[in-house]
Specification:
By secondary structure, the protein is an all-alpha fold. It is built from 14 helices and 2 strands, in the order ααββαααααααααααα. A two-stranded antiparallel ribbon has the order 1-2. Strand 1 and strand 2 form a beta hairpin.
Length: 303
């Protein structure tokens, strides 16, 4: 008993923070929180408030109620094409670039020859910004001086970036070229973490390579699938640089982000109307974010 009491007496109690510790914690936690409030949440709430007003950035702010939203959905011809284009970006990146990145990751993970070279080459576009990808697309797809028309020849060159029926697909291919390398690296990291014992057990049970992948490997990649899905949604919603570099997001390349920029900092200076567009984009983003969080919380409860 005396020894037990002595051990209990020697146990460290809860740490008491000094004034200096509290100051350091306050600075390390307070500054990021203040920056987040000032740069993220402040402009967000300001945009929500301004979306119900009519303001050109110089004169008085006048209350407009829901007029901006009514005009947005019923009287703004560029809105619905921009929504369709954003959904097309999401479908194209999610159904083409992401599966193709997974396929490349599986092939490289199997140890093909020159796998390091392929990995570096395919990842190289990721280090480029979408604006640079847009300039590269112009060099290749330009009507008069583009490399593609120079190779194809012909008396009537195709206007790949000027034709509204073609330019969206050309830009999507350029965006997929960049997004595929990013997805490939994420899946490569996930494949390296798969337990080889699971594959060996599946082979002993008579499973083929396809069955092993879809029934053993792919389910273990669920965390990577979630990350790829979130990144794909973010890329499709924040797409701006490449279309603005090509033709300032017009003539068939309209996106919600471009419309927000054109209305807020463009010649019209319709800050209230541009804020309403930004709020719509925010709500769409929150829909995907909330769905992702709900799925993650349900997965943790099942575990």
């Amino acid at each position: 008993m005396p020894n037990l009491r002595a051990r209990r007496a020697r146990r460290p109690g809860p740490r008491r923070y000094t004034r200096r510790d509290r100051l350091v914690l306050g600075v390390l936690l307070g500054l990021p929180i203040l920056l987040d409030l000032a740069l993220i949440w402040g402009p967000t709430f300001a945009s929500v408030g301004l979306s119900f007003t009519s303001w050109d950035g110089i004169g008085d702010i006048r209350w407009a109620g829901l007029k901006n939203y009514d005009h947005l959905f019923t009287g703004y011809p560029q809105f619905w094409p921009a929504v369709r284009h954003n959904l097309l970006w999401l479908a194209f990146l999610g159904l083409l670039a992401a599966p193709f990145g997974l396929l490349l990751a599986v092939l490289i993970d199997r140890g093909v020859r020159f796998s390091r070279f392929y990995q570096s080459t395919l990842y190289m576009p990721v280090v480029l910004s979408l604006a640079v990808v847009g300039f590269i697309a112009q060099l290749i797809l330009s009507r008069d001086q583009g490399a593609l028309n120079a190779v194809l020849g012909g008396a009537h060159p195709t206007d790949w970036l000027g034709d509204p029926g073609l330019n969206i697909w050309m830009v999507l291919l350029a965006a997929c070229w960049r997004h595929t390398g990013y997805v490939m690296i994420l899946y490569l990291a996930g494949l390296k973490s798969v337990d080889p014992g699971l594959k060996e057990a599946a082979a002993l049970d008579g499973a083929g390579a396809r069955q092993t992948f879809f029934r053993v490997v792919l389910p273990t990649l669920r965390p990577v699938n979630v990350i790829v899905g979130v990144i794909t949604v973010i890329e499709s919603l924040r797409a701006f640089d490449i279309v603005y570099a090509v033709n300032k997001g017009r003539n068939g390349l309209e996106l919600l982000s471009v419309l927000v920029t054109d209305n807020i900092i463009g010649e019209a200076s319709r800050i209230g109307f541009g804020s309403a567009l930004a709020v719509v984009l925010l709500l769409v983003s929150l829909g995907f974010i909330v769905t992702y969080l709900v799925q993650e919380l349900r997965g943790e409860r099942r575990q």
